[in-house]
Design a protein that fits this description.
- The chain is mostly helical.
- The protein contains seven helices and two strands.
- Helix 1 crosses helix 3, helix 2 packs across helix 3 and helix 6 packs antiparallel against helix 7.
- It is elongated and about 55 Å long.
- The N and C termini lie far apart (67 Å).
Length: 163
């Protein structure tokens, strides 16, 4: 009988609850996110801890980093692909927020120029096709332009309040 893919795998829930609890989420918060009870979250964490002690699983830096990224994305911090005069880069929105206005404007302009120069730009307003998306990079840059534009607006508002 095939697995129901709408359900989250038990082992994934164990690992997720364990790592996310180490990152500061409470059992109540995890219960809400995983749509279960705090008691079940506790048993999932205990089960994963038992697997760690027995050597059935071994924690790695990749696992911690993966769940940290999941936490950031759940909190609204998005990873962006953008363009600068040195090429393509990836960074979290929270990292870009720390940049000064001039650096943000440079990234914004480079990314926007790239998107605007693309002859396929008109297709970016339509949903991507199933499977392979030949415009994936363009979509990522368009998303970055929107987010960085918002960060620039926030910085502009801060400057106006200080003046």
């Amino acid at each position: 009988m095939p697995k129901d893919t709408s359900e989250v795998d038990e082992e994934v829930m164990e690992e997720g609850c364990y790592h996310l609890s180490l990152l500061g989420l409470t059992r109540d918060q995890l219960a809400v996110h995983f749509e279960t009870t705090p008691e079940r979250v506790g048993s999932l964490i205990a089960s994963y801890e038992a697997k760690l002690k027995s050597g059935k699983v071994t924690p790695g830096d990749f696992d911690r980093a993966f769940w940290d990224d999941v936490k950031k994305e759940a909190e609204g911090d998005v990873k962006l692909t953008f363009l600068s005069d040195k090429g393509f880069h990836h960074a979290w929105k929270s990292e870009l927020k720390k940049l000064n206005g001039a650096a943000l404007m440079s990234i914004y302009e480079s990314s926007k120029d790239f998107v605007n120069a693309d002859p396929n730009q008109k297709f970016l307003d339509y949903p991507p096709p199933k499977g392979y998306d030949p415009l994936a990079m363009d979509r990522e840059l368009k998303k970055a332009v929107t987010v960085i534009g918002g960060l620039l607006a926030e910085k502009w508002d801060e400057e106006k309040k200080r003046a």
